[in-house]
Each structure stands twice: as structure tokens, then as C-alpha cells.
Specification:
Blueprint lengths: L6 H8 L22 H13 L5 H8 L4 H9 L9 H10 L4 H16 L8 E10 L7 H6 L12 E5 L3 E13 L6 E8 L4 H9 L8 E3 L7 H9 L3 E3 L13 H25 L11 H24 L8 H7 L1
Parallel strand pairs: 1-5, 5-6
Antiparallel strand pairs: 1-3, 2-3, 3-4
Helix pairs in contact: 1-2, 2-11, 6-11, 8-9
């Protein structure tokens, strides 16, 4: 009887098959990297699937004398060399800066494989969703005075107001998803919750596939910088208009239909994503870098799960939570 490879090992191996963003044109000064970036992407996949949020937790789990951990350690070596603890800490600390580019690259690859727009318009939905910080909230009156009531508070998070959730202290996940039968994340970024949506939008839109035609957003993306970028890249931006309702201009009926479509696509995906990675409550990490690593890493793992299920002819967006828990 042939032993089947553990699912987690298979997901980690998929990292070697996904396209990589182009390297920087000018090499940084200092010693060349001994360990390539994909090695630490593999480690991040293990951390997300096994709910490990700190480098020492990852190393402790990898040190266990099981066949699965031995297989994973073999995938994390280069010419027989295994990174030291300090190397793990340093490279995992730097990893979040590269994740938006990697997510965009893998999103474009998934579009080329799955063809989500084969039977519909080439539309994307852009939105942000709040995530609560761990350790409680830092009230504005205390923040203004520089008073920290207790050390569990995450001082790098911030406040935002959501019409649905109310006031939230934490973070924003900025996301672009394909508007199709399959929810494919195409671009993502995580910021403190007080960062305006239109400031992050240009970086997200630059990661979209060249075949994208429509960008559907809410009123927060009806900003000059977003409109100018869409005009330059031949994208049709459709957003709500400011001012009292009801609107009576010529395009209001079309915008109403497209706004409903955007809401069904991106808002359902946000809840779907939070449910899979247990993000409806507080995030399990503290600090901007660790939270970016967790949230953006979860987006990357979601994309890898889509790639695996597509190649094995499985339902793409159904049963993903159970699938990842089984890994």
C-alpha cells in the first residue's frame, strides 16, 4: 500500500510552483541571501494552517520527531543547511513587505488557470473590512494623553468607524476580489484601521490582471487619485456618488445594479474569509508586522487552497474551512 503524502506537505510544495514577483532592479547592499524567499513562504503556510503566530512556535512544532515534520523540515533546507533561529526571526519579520506582490502574482496566475470571467464581465470588487485588535482597545482620550491602561493593548492599531460594525479598534484588510462564481482574491494589503481606503487603492489596482475591465467600489473610492489611475490603466471605475439620496442622474439605475453585485461579491467573501480563519473576533497577533504576516498569509493560503482544489477537480469555494483544518 502506497502511503499518501500529508495534505500540509502538498500545500507547502505548491509554493514552488507559483509565479514569483520580479526581483528588485538593484540588489541591496550587504551579504547575499543564503536562503531564498520561497523557503519562508513555505514556513508561513505551515504557520497559518497550524495556527502558529510566532517564529519560536513554528520552530518548536517543526522540531517534533514525526514523519510529517521530518518531511516539512526537508522542504525548508537549502543544500542541507537549515536556517538558524535568528535567521527565522529576521526573515519572517521582513516577509510581510513582500506578501502583497506575491498575492497579486498568484491572483493573476489563478485567473489564467480558472478563467472566472469566461461567462461574465471582467469585473472586480474593491473594499476594506475591519479586524479587531487583540488585547482590548486604547480609548482616544488615553491615546491623546499617552496613557496606556495596560500592556496588552496593541498600540500600533487604530480606530475606524463602520456603518455596519460601528466603532472598531484594530486593522483594515484592503482587498480586491474577482466578481464571478469563484471568489479569487487578486490583491490585498493590511493597514491600521484609520488609513483611508483611497490611499491604499492605487497599490491594489496595480496588481490586477491586465484583462480586468471594471472596478466596483463604494463611495470611499470615488476619489481623484483612484479615478485618475483607472483612467490611465483603461479601467472603468463604478462607485456610489456623494450627496443625499435618492440620486436622479442618468446612470443611477446601472450603478444600483452594479453596487448590489459588488456587495454580494466582496462582502460575502469577507465573511467567508473571516469564518475560515477565525477572524470574526480579535486577531491572534499583536503589532503591525505580525498581524500583516497572519492576515496576508491567510489570503495567500486561501489562494493556494484554490489552486490545489482546482488541480484536483474539487469544489473551489465550498468546504474550504474543513479542508484546511484537515491539513
Amino acid at each position: 500500500m502506497i502511503a499518501q503524502e500529508p495534505l500540509l506537505v502538498t500545500l507547502v510544495k505548491l509554493v514552488d510552483r507559483i509565479p514569483k514577483p520580479p526581483p528588485p532592479q538593484k540588489r541591496r547592499r550587504g551579504r547575499p541571501k543564503v536562503y531564498p524567499d520561497p523557503l519562508f513562504l513555505k514556513a508561513l503556510v505551515i504557520m497559518i494552517v497550524r495556527h502558529l503566530h510566532k517564529p519560536h512556535e513554528l520552530l518548536t512544532v517543526l522540531a517534533q520527531p514525526t514523519a510529517e515534520m521530518q518531511s516539512l523540515r526537508a522542504l525548508l533546507t537549502v543544500d542541507g543547511l537549515y536556517p538558524s533561529r535568528r535567521t527565522w526571526e529576521r526573515r519572517l519579520q521582513a516577509l510581510p513587505a513582500t506578501l502583497p506582490g506575491q498575492i497579486g502574482c498568484l491572483g493573476r496566475y489563478l485567473v489564467s488557470l480558472i478563467h472566472p470571467w469566461a461567462a461574465c464581465a471582467r469585473a472586480t470588487a474593491i473594499d476594506s473590512t475591519p479586524l479587531r485588535a487583540c488585547g482590548g482597545v486604547w480609548h482616544p482620550r488615553d491615546r491623546k494623553r499617552g496613557v496606556l491602561p495596560h500592556t496588552a493593548i496593541d498600540t500600533e492599531a487604530h480606530w475606524t468607524y463602520s456603518g455596519w460594525h460601528g466603532w472598531i479598534y484594530g486593522w483594515k484588510l484592503h482587498l480586491v476580489s474577482a466578481v464571478a462564481a469563484v471568489w479569487i482574491p487578486l490583491a490585498a494589503e493590511l493597514t491600521p484601521a484609520n488609513v483611508a481606503d483611497n490611499k491604499v487603492a492605487p497599490a491594489l489596482l496595480r496588481e490586477l490582471p491586465l484583462s480586468t475591465r471594471f472596478v466596483l467600489g463604494d463611495v470611499h473610492y470615488n476619489a481623484r487619485n483612484v479615478r485618475q489611475l483607472c483612467e490611465r490603466d483603461d479601467l472603468i471605475l463604478v462607485t456610489n456618488r456623494r450627496g443625499p439620496y435618492p440620486h436622479h442622474d442618468a446612470g443611477v439605475a446601472v450603478r444600483r445594479v452594479l453596487h448590489k453585485l459588488r456587495s454580494l461579491a466582496i462582502e460575502n467573501f469577507n465573511e467567508h474569509f473571516k469564518g475560515i480563519f477565525d477572524a470574526h473576533g480579535q486577531v491572534p497577533t499583536k503589532g503591525l508586522i505580525a498581524t500583516q504576516r497572519f492576515v496576508l498569509g491567510a489570503v495567500l493560503v486561501y489562494q493556494l487552497a484554490l489552486l490545489y482544489r482546482f488541480e484536483h477537480d474539487l469544489e473551489l469555494c465550498i468546504g474550504l474551512k474543513a479542508f484546511l483544518k484537515a491539513a
